[in-house]
Design a protein that fits this description.
The protein has 774 residues and is an alpha+beta fold. Helix content is 45%, strand content 14%. The protein has 31 helices and 21 strands. Helix 16 runs antiparallel to helix 17.
């Protein structure tokens, strides 16, 4: 049978060449979504788009056995009018293969006439594209211009026919991206030839003819090549509505439209890529997770043994709403409707999703912002909150309640979900928490009281936090104690874990906790010069943080992370004492300044480091320069780092003012040929020294010795290779037999240490060393 010239038949496999018969046009109807594969990053991999990964796979397959066949799943559609196949599914794959064909056509060699003719026959017919994009007029215009001009290349936007209107069309923009991505993958004519042979004749699709059966059973079992299910409109809607009698169909069809309208009304106005389908899919995921939680909490800790529910939570499996019978379909539709009623309640109450943490306030965003953001959507902490609130509010939609009551209850549930995620947030932990939430009731036992007896929660929550609020009813307004606990929990210093703060007070009161939260927000949440200098009077205010190009690195309360680490991981007594000291201070800033004015820094066992600690404490300008509170210490000096890393000149040498003054005075005592390098080194080069014509430097530095005295050190160094240094070193030793020591690794002689603070003597020493080189 000549499949190219026969009408498409349901249940028959077609190659790409056969599917695009000589008279057939394939139409992407206006009900379809935009083409998006060129902007869709695959879930696993190295950041490739679906187009890039798809092309890589096809190229690899095309270079193996010539007769190897590849089944690419199913396509379904219906013919209307004659010779126009309206594609209901398979748009992304077919569009990508069409674009691959066009790019490869431009790369064929001159002798590939037969293959060229085959490709032309599937791309164009009577100077029009065989793939018709009816999503919008600009899409259709673009693809026709693309084919007529054979413009499948990188410079497509420079074509004279290209219109600015195309840049506002998401499908067009993605087609252009796809062409560029494909073009970069198909390197030469040989690759193009093999790839075309393969995709035209070795790839096959199974076609299902939908005729006029919009809700056909085949539709909801089809999967596209990404492994994702169809969208809700393509999948769940026909599955559920297709089971209904005519009497029920009108009711639930109108209801479905109202859900889509709800999503449209809450769309992000600034998101040009918004689709109702994507949001609907996310809503149905939330509804499924809220409805199907196992109240017994039987979930696996091992990923390979995850339950179907856990895999839906993970994102590796799609939800399933049962509809084997009309009764089951109606039950599923009523369940979805109940959750959309809860969504309306959430919208009216403007309930938030709580973000990571803040500084004196509780940062959040609306649930709609959460649903629209892919990064937020993949965050289990956020999903735990959203599913929890839908579990509880779905129970409230048919009860007459005040908005204050519902809002307070929702606040408690959200806060519980957020705090628990700070302790445990793996897949199985989220499932077990949702099981806990499912057992709660607005007018039942207090959430705090139940949690006190549930092993799901940590001992510190059960023994320190929950007892403070255990007598509160779920329906009561948010108490002052709850507000204070929330403020503390959402500090970066706390990140939900506040036992360190509760331990300070024998009988914590809301006003005590609120004042502590305010004081932490002014100090540990935003470390600054005042705080760092005040902490020096406590002792453990720094820690080693490896090495950088400038020496050993130390951090002085670099960020709020430092305080979280010290209070929770290390449980450092010094920092805990500091927090205890500021807990009841009405003016914490005055308290910090008073410690600086009346106390000295506590020193370490390292005498050299102590020199710089004293300088940092006395001269706050160094801390003012250090945005991250970091210094680096080498064998000679210490450096205030402007940023976290040793880059360029982003530092200032930490020096005693007298030391800095002596550098300038010493330089002033010499002629203008001497220079100051790196703030503290006075230097002059002797060009073309010795028979090897090496540049030799004479340098001198003012240092503070380990016992705190100023001294001047002089050096001679070679600007040369190790081999050249080996040759000139004996000559230098003849000139300077009194050298102090040799550093072969850095190619210098340490000549003399001057135990004097006289800049005249230092200048005289440098000049005499230089003169001896001459």
């Amino acid at each position: 049978m000549d499949l190219r010239n026969e009408p498409l038949q349901s249940g028959v496999s077609y190659s790409l060449y056969e599917f695009f018969g000589p008279k057939r046009d394939i139409v992407i109807p206006d009900l379809q979504r935009d083409y998006c594969w060129a902007s869709t990053i695959i879930v696993t991999g190295d950041g490739q788009t679906l187009v890039e990964a798809y092309v890589d796979d096809l190229i690899l397959a095309s270079q193996k056995e010539e007769d190897a066949q590849l089944k690419m799943g199913l396509l379904y559609g219906y013919e209307y009018p004659a010779d126009n196949v309206q594609l209901c599914d398979g748009q992304q794959r077919l569009t990508t293969l069409f674009l691959i064909s066009g790019v490869c056509l431009n790369k064929l060699g001159d002798d590939d006439n037969v293959l060229r003719e085959e490709v032309n026959s599937i791309i164009s017919h009577k100077h029009s594209s065989r793939l018709q994009y009816a999503i919008r007029d600009s899409s259709l215009s673009f693809i026709n211009n693309l084919v007529q001009n054979g413009a499948f290349h990188q410079g497509i936007t420079e074509e004279p026919w290209y219109s600015n209107e195309y840049s506002r069309d998401p499908s067009v923009c993605n087609m252009i991206k796809a062409i560029k991505q494909i073009d970069s993958k198909v390197a030469n004519a040989d690759t193009a030839t093999k790839l075309l042979h393969y995709i035209l004749h070795n790839i096959s699709f199974l076609y299902f003819d939908m005729q006029s059966r919009t809700y056909s059973e085949e539709q909801y079992v089809i999967l596209n090549t990404t492994g994702y299910s169809l969208t809700p409109t393509e999948h769940v809607k026909p599955k559920l509505l297709g089971k209904l009698s005519d009497k029920q169909l009108e009711k639930y069809s109108e209801q479905w439209e109202s859900w889509e309208q709800f999503i449209w009304n809450h769309r992000p106005i600034e998101d040009d890529n918004f689709t109702v389908d994507e949001w609907f899919d996310r809503f149905l995921t939330i509804f499924y997770l809220a409805e199907n939680i196992d109240k017994d909490g039987s979930y696996s800790d091992k990923e390979s043994d995850y339950t179907p529910y856990q895999r839906v939570l993970q994102g590796s499996r799609k939800y399933n709403f049962y509809a084997d019978t009309e009764e089951e379909a109606i039950k599923s539709l009523d369940t979805i409707h109940n959750y959309f009623e809860a969504a309306t309640l959430i919208s009216n109450l403007e309930l938030p999703v709580i973000l990571e943490f803040g500084s004196g306030e509780i940062p959040s965003k609306s649930i709609w912002e959460y649903i629209s953001n892919s990064a937020d959507w993949s965050n289990l902490s956020n999903l735990q909150q959203v599913v929890s609130i839908f579990i509880q509010l779905s129970k409230c939609v048919n009860i007459k309640l005040s908005s204050d009551t519902v809002s307070a209850w929702a606040n408690r549930v959200l806060e519980f979900a957020w705090v628990q995620s700070r302790y445990e947030n793996k897949n199985q932990d989220v499932c077990r928490f949702l099981s806990f939430v499912a057992k709660l009731n607005l007018y039942g036992e207090s959430i705090y009281s139940i949690a006190t007896k549930d092993s799901l929660f940590s001992n510190e929550l059960q023994t320190k936090k929950f007892p403070l609020v255990a007598d509160l009813k779920n329906s009561s307004p948010i108490s002052e104690m709850e507000k204070a606990l929330q403020l503390l929990a959402h500090l970066q210093t706390s990140r939900g874990r506040i036992s360190y703060a509760l331990d300070i007070f024998e009988n914590p009161q809301p006003e005590d906790l609120s004042l502590l939260a305010q004081n932490l927000a002014k100090t540990t949440e935003h470390p600054n010069t005042l705080l760092r200098r005040a902490l020096m009077t406590y002792g453990a205010y720094w820690y080693e943080n490896g090495w950088c190009n400038w020496g050993k690195r130390y951090e002085f309360a670099s960020s709020a992370n430092y305080f979280y680490y010290q209070t929770h991981d290390k449980q450092d007594e010094v920092i805990l004492n500091f927090i205890k000291d500021i807990a009841k201070e009405e003016n914490v800033i005055d308290y910090l300044q008073k410690r600086i004015d009346t106390m000295s820094p506590i020193l370490t066992d390292d005498n050299r480091l102590n020199l710089y600690i004293k300088l940092l404490f006395l001269h706050k300008e160094y801390f003012d320069l250090m945005k991250s509170g970091r210094i680096a210490v080498d064998n000679h000096n210490a450096y205030a780092m402007f940023g976290p890393n040793a880059i360029g000149d982003n530092y200032r040498t930490i020096m005693d003012p007298k030391q800095r003054s002596l550098v300038k005075e010493t330089k002033a005592s010499l002629d203008e040929s001497w220079i100051i390098c790196e703030e503290f080194t006075i230097a002059k080069a002797r060009e073309n020294w010795s028979l090897l014509s090496i540049k030799v430097w004479v340098t001198g530095d003012w240092h503070i010795s380990d016992d705190g005295k100023l001294e001047f050190r002089s050096y001679v160094s070679g600007e040369c290779s190790n081999e050249e240094w080996a040759e000139i070193k004996p000559q230098l030793l003849e000139v300077f037999p009194e050298y102090h020591f040799i550093d072969d690794a850095n190619r210098y002689l340490h000549i003399k240490v001057l135990d004097s603070s006289s800049h005249e003597e230092a200048a005289s020493l440098l000049q005499s060393i230089y003169d001896r080189l001459i």
